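Q: Can I see a sequence and its folded structure?
A: Here is a first one.
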Amino acid sequence: MRDLRLALRSLLRAPSFTLPIVIVLGLGLGANVALYSILQTVFLRPLPVAERERLTIIKTQLKGDPLKWGVSHARFEELKACPCPFTNMAESLCESSTTLQLADRKWPVAMSMVGRGWFQVLGMKPSHGRTFTSEEEATGAPVAVLSHRLWRTAFQGDPAILGRTVLTGESPIPVTVVGIGPAGFEGLELGRREDLWIPLQGAKISQGYFSRRESLAFSVAARLKPGVSRFQAQVALETASAAMAMAHPDTDSGQHLVLESLEASEQKLLKRVLPQRTLLLITSGLALLLAVVGTSGIFAARAAKREQELVTRYALGADGSALAKPLLLEALLLALLTAPVALGSGLWVARHFMLNPGQTAKDAIILPQLDGRILALGLGLSLVALLLAAAIPLLKVRRMNPARALALKGGGATLLKGGGFFVMGQVGLSLILLVASSVALHAFRSAAHMGYPTAHRAFMVVDTTNDPGLPDRLLARLRAMPEVTKATRGIAAPLANFIFRFGIRGGERTEMEVFPGAVVAGDWFSTLGVSVLEGRDFTNQDGQDKVILNENLARRFFPNASAVGRTIELGSNAHLDIVGVVADHRMRPDAEFHLPMLWLTQDWLKMNTSCVMVTGRGSARAILERMREAFSLEKTGTEPEKLITLEDHVAATLHQENQNMRLLGSLGLGSLMLACFGLWAALNLQVALKGRELAIRMALGATARQLATRILGLGARLLALGLVTGAFVIWLLTRLAASHWAGLPTLSSLDLLSAAGALTAAGLLACLIPALRAARTNPSDTLRNE
């Protein structure tokens, strides 16, 4: 206990030693805590279903499309009639945004409409009440099962909710609550929340969902027969897909039914939360390395400063264990102080990465929580890192020279003594990280490029089920407003998931090929701000025989001539005249920017929703208010399904790219701070070790400016050595990468120069504080202490 008190007193008397270690090492370890807590939250999620390994999801894979889609109702019915390796299967349709009408307010919920036997396929037992009976599923009775989370939040866990009637939807529909789902179950797919379930048969949805084979909207859950492997089930699905393609070549050609495990949704969530897992793994490792190196530099500086004290104790009879014990106790106490910083910063980062843009913690589906595993990780990492960092003074204890130290020869300081090598390593490593983050940021910015401006634009999605003329009336109102310069409509907003695919051929392509497309009205491209390279935009007078291609698709079909005025064949009968070619831009949420795509006129397809797009003068927020005003004049007392600025919509959709850029920016900023911290600590040591020399120089006539310049010169030399070391390593890495990994982003001299310039400026600024301290040296006090 006496040694513990001494170690604690020693730490409290040296805040310039204790605080930097706690903060820097805590933040460095926080990156590792964040990574582990996210992985644990995603992969260690217990799902309250029976025999999870036999439960699977059936999806549709379209030829040439990396995404997997749902299954059409017609194909699901045919699949049930085929010989298949499943004991049972059921379908569901999720409505992601509806409301629950409570007494005081509207509660946003995600409602899932489930087909017959859905809960039986899942093997899910309700925590209260029951699930649907066969009769309720067959007749579409107005009943509902609430998720455990919705029951706890909206109804405060009131068991009397069973048997009560609640209202759902904007046009309220009464349903009777018959059960509460088990805790922890909010749908099969992690990352897509389901708050309540109603029978599919009684849902108020368009019959097009059931009749159109192209409507890949249904989620199909199936349970494998005992003893049947996933590979055998996939072979059976391939056979069924081939039979459907032969029976329906116009709609089912190029579509394959595929199995997707429950773990696939975990991987998708992990890809959204940690879009660059390898990058974050490298980042967390380098952050830990930088933090340990920086801490080792501080320990080395402290060891050099305390060398005479330790040697004096050694000369007076203290053995190695007696000298090492206080150092080990200091490392232990620092670990206890560092662990809360590591745990707090790590959990904050993890929760931040798992929240969607604009989402609050109470709305999140799944968030990391502090538990025994994460607590043990934080404490263990802190202790191991500090023991590694303290190895420098512990080794110095074993190599003491009392005669040299007591003769005051040990007090001299060279440039690389007392952590100088560590500072060089920090600066070099920081330069490597800054350059890597700069190169990767340029690549991700290019990937997130939209091809059109997002400022001064907004859109709303409205339900036209019972009012098909609503979009045109809204457009008339909006165009009459002085703040609005252009307004148009389409089936779906930019970057929306609901995008159609069409089979076309023409020009030099004689075989039918499938490409994504959209259905829009006149002035769509001018409103969105997309350049028309050839021909013209749509007008409201264009009929079904007109089409616009993007630049990529036009080059593919007509590489040697202009596409405008030519004809392509859509499906087996329709021939379309090309009236325009527009610049490539992101209409889909795909990562590929230059995706071939085509646009058809609004006469091609009628849907129950419509997207009204507006561009105007002033801020997008002001435009939103005008749009809300126009909608309220048409639909008093109701709200559109979605009303958002294009800028916010793009930011939410490109969450992955934004996470990448935030991660890389944090990596660059963190490495810069650690390098500056290392320089500051090393020069503080130099000022302490050279105190006698600085005092003598000042006593002999040196000015404060000369002393400050001397210390700045030491810092500049350390900085230069580190920059040269880092540049040499970067040169080696670029040569190695060029010979082994093709397609990596290229390093430009501008990236290297800008990183070196930023590091130099920040480093010299960090050197200024010790230099000013040296300039305030008091010769009489210093020499009296000597």
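Q: Show me another, different protein.
A: A second, unrelated one:
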Amino acid sequence: MITLPRYDGRVTRNPNRDADSREEAGDTPSLAALMGFAPLPAALSEKVIGAQFRAVDRMIAFRIALGLLSIAFVLILYWGAAPLWLLAVWSVASLASIVPPMRSFFARRASQYEGLPPGMLWMHAIGMALQGLLWAGPMLLLAPKGSVLEVASLWTMTTCLLAAVAMGFHATPLAAGLFLTVVGGASVQMMLRAGSRELAVTVAAFSLLMLLTSLRQARQFGRQITTDRQLADKRETVSLLLGEHDDNRTDWLWQIDTARRLTGVTRQFARIAGVEAEALEGRSLLELLAGPAWESGQIDQVLHDIAAKFKAREGFANLLVPVEVNGSRRWWELSASPRMDEGGAFLGYRGVGVDMTVQRETEDRFHRLARFDPLTQLPNRLHLTEALGEAVEAMRRWNTRSAFLMIDLDRFKAVNDTLGHHVGDKLLEQVASRLRDTCGSRAFCGRLGGDEFAVLMPDIRDAAEIEGLASAIIDRLSQPYEVEHHTLFVGASVGSATGPRDGTSADELIRSADLAMYRAKEEGGGRHFAYVGSLHVEAEDRRKMEMALRSAIENGELRVEYQPVVNSTSGDLDGFEALLRWHNPEFGEVAPSRFLRIAEEARLLAALDAWVLKTACQEAARWPLPLRLSINLSPEQLWDADLIPRLEALLQGTGLDPRRLELEVMESIFTRDGSEAVRRLEQVGALGIGLALDDFGTGYSSLGCLARTRFRTIKIDRSFVAGAAAGQEEHVAILRALIAMATSLGIETTAEGVETEREVELVRRVGCTRLQGYYLGRSMRVEDVRRLFTRNARQSDAA
């Protein structure tokens, strides 16, 4: 147990007292720090700004009351002497200036004055300067219109304001100084305009006195903060001493002699060190802290720092030391100061230790969670961005080159949709392992999120290195995966950017690699694409096109065209398929394949589909019976909770017979939630609306779709039609089988993309019900459709 020296009334000279005093003075926030011009002491940085605003806010009610009285005083004083509009404008501005400080006050009080940024001092100062300009207004604009008595009255009110600010804002000296300078300067100018230099000098002296008083009070405020902290430290030490016999405490007292040997070992210290107190007595502190590393000499740097402090007989505080206790790693935080006897002779050190293991392990966990992806254990986006920033700095300093690769998995969404996110997560874990093995030590890889990964090559010599690693990544990630008895196939698309050519900052390189990666996916995936400057131009065009598409409906740029669908037996017109077209003044006629992809990425597809559905149904209601209308129903529309009510209202409003409406869906809708998709389609069919399965035969579950949902029509993809017409026996057989199966189920068939006479004859011969394609008719504008009906009607009348 440590025995504290008894106090016998004599003053003991401590040669370190002056140094301690200088250290305490160094912890006192300077006037520049209180004004925001210099950094605050580390020990006080979290508390000073909150204390400043807490002191300022204590008098907020008094300041507001004084401000309102001052506004009323100015109005009474100059009512009739100054233009009414000028008084009104100034009054409104003055009242409005009270609102921001009040909002800031409530925000600070809600946060309990914690976490306030240093920049708030500057915002507060700017606000006070603006208020000073407002109060300078009467002196510069209104005073010349009044008498000498009115000028004296205005100055009397101004002295109250100056005194109130000097007293109430001493904790924020920058704000007080700006207000006093502005208002004091305006007061001097007012007296000079009144023709009294003597009063101007008096006013200047008073304003300067208020400014100096405010600054002096600010210095006292800074010293008071330091005093409060020192008292808190002393209270903490007393609490520590009083809790010396509490076995649950994680802190303890320790002391060493001049040979750095432990003396007076406390029970808490022995318990936390895992050694009996008698065994610790007389043992070297540094040897205890170093543990097994003491013999090898490979001790932690912090122990070298402590040894240097011991040698220089300097105090230290809050040094975190790794320690091995009974085979486990612990973290101790040590603080100490030299001990002197009454004659000033050095006796050793006395200090405090705290076991910080739990806090350190918690911090390490938070640090890892903040910088590593919890699923794949790869560095996350934050960690990757930091590493890329370091590479950019190295490029700038050492004139090196770095590469950043972005990787997106191909066909991963299908895995999630069909097998669930659990299998998807297992797949991502295997992808991460393969990526880590492929990159090895030559690159730094991580996960950005979802199915996107990234690789940083911090120092490259030529493009062949990038191409080689990208190819290796694609090959490795494209090999089959075994996940919970499923054999899965996914690919990878890679985009790369090289710095400093493709970007001189982390954000620029990430953007360039991202654009290159999307180009690789657009070109079919499973390949690597290096960034080129034109990609940025294309991205900007896409952004402009997206903005134009958002307002295309309101601007009347969209139109619906109708492509004929013909009965294969009679050759008569059976109906039309509605197709969306867009003509923009800047981009001209935009291909549907282009703007529909942009609409899907921007989540605009549902709005466009709804507009097409409404427009086409209104038009189809005018057509002669029994012509039918076919419209594509996107997944976004199908999953819309308001789809059924919207269809009911549309049919009722247009009068269109639901049997004449046919909605086409892609079989991919069943991969998200098959049972829910079936239920939604059954609701649509219950309205009497026909259902068509588009691009039949090109997916993975076509037969399953037919088994679960009653379709009126299946549309055979053009690839089968073209292949059969070209003489490919496999396609002919598939075409015959599809049509035979549909006929047996009582389902009509429509051959899409019929473009030649040979294709027409072929699909007729195999029994296809309906035909659609350029050979039979291209899409028509609504005016052409109406003229077609008018011409047919005239021909019928003539016959």
